[in-house]
């Protein structure tokens, strides 16, 4: 590996046309500049022609000069990335559960459209997988339905999300008989969500006694059969808000609501990049406006 100080001296000599001015620009002695060039020429042959008080690069010198420029540019890029002071540049990597992921998807697309220098990687994943992805360095932050157990991670409350009972449009305030007649559109978390919501809304009733009319494992599609009158379901609020045809649904209000807290999870010792912090601000503003 070539000593970067020697390469800096070569760049300065060519830029200023003088060993003396190069030393002044680098704030070192002229003897040091001469020594650096001598070290380079010992290893790579004659680099500079010094005639009529002008400095000209030899063919070998031109090649090494181009290499020195590449090293300087790479060093500048590295310093910029390490400084990380531009919220409109760089990578933003995150993972979220499906419900809030649907609500945030367009927000993140809008953010990237406003700042083309951002590269946004957004994955949908369950909470246990999100913790593993953080520890493996695959993402910078995640949103989780529960705080992590691993002490290498830290969590703070990000947003609350209510569970919603959703029926086809046109149904009256549902009693248990209405739900039995309609039947449930199930999904991977459906039985658990329904049990939690119904324990408050229909105390003493069991979700297992309700017929299941269908099952969907893609969160963006769960409300399609409900909108077509094929059954009811229970989903988090953000998944309901993301559905494109709200007039085809009847969302039952629950007072007081059954609420889940979503947690912002990060590596404990790793500060967020400026780009990630900016993305989080945009996400919070988007959710607050919903």
UniProtKB/TrEMBL annotation:
Family: Belongs to the LysR transcriptional regulatory family.
Domain HTH lysR-type: 2-58
Keywords: DNA-binding, Transcription, Transcription regulation
MF-aspect GO terms: DNA-binding transcription factor activity; transcription cis-regulatory region binding
Name listed for the protein in its UniProt record: LysR family transcriptional regulator
Entries under PROSITE patterns matching the protein: HTH_LYSR (PS50931)
Pfam family, one: LysR_substrate
InterPro entries to which the protein is assigned, alphabetical: LysR_HTH_N, LysR_subst-bd, WH-like_DNA-bd_sf, WH_DNA-bd_sf
């Amino acid at each position: 590996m070539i000593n970067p100080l020697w390469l800096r001296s070569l760049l300065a000599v060519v830029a200023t046309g003088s060993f003396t001015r190069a030393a002044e620009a680098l704030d070192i002695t002229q003897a040091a500049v001469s020594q650096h060039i001598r070290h380079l020429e010992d290893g790579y042959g004659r680099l500079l022609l010094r005639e009529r008080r002008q400095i000209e690069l030899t063919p070998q010198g031109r090649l090494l000069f181009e290499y020195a420029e590449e090293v300087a540019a790479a060093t500048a890029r590295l310093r910029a990335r390490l400084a990380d002071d531009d919220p409109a540049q760089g990578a933003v990597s995150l993972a979220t559960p499906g419900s809030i992921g649907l609500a945030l998807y367009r927000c993140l697309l809008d953010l990237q459209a406003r700042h083309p220098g951002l590269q946004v990687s957004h994955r949908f994943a369950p909470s246990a997988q999100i913790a593993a992805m953080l520890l493996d360095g695959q993402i910078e932050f995640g949103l989780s339905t529960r705080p992590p157990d691993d002490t290498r991670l830290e969590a703070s409350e990000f947003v609350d999300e209510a569970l919603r009972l959703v029926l086809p449009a046109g149904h009256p305030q549902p009693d248990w008989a209405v739900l039995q007649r309609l039947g449930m559109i199930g999904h991977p978390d459906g039985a658990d969500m329904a049990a939690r919501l119904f324990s408050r809304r229909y105390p003493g009733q069991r979700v297992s006694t309700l017929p299941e009319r269908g099952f969907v494992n893609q969160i963006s599609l769960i409300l399609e059969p409900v909108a077509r009158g094929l059954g009811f379901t229970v989903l988090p609020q953000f998944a309901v808000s993301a559905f494109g045809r709200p007039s085809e649904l009847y969302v039952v209000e629950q007072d007081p609501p059954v609420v889940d807290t979503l947690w912002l999870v990060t590596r404990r010792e790793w500060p967020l990049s400026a780009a990630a912090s900016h993305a989080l601000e945009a996400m919070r503003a988007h959710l607050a406006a919903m």
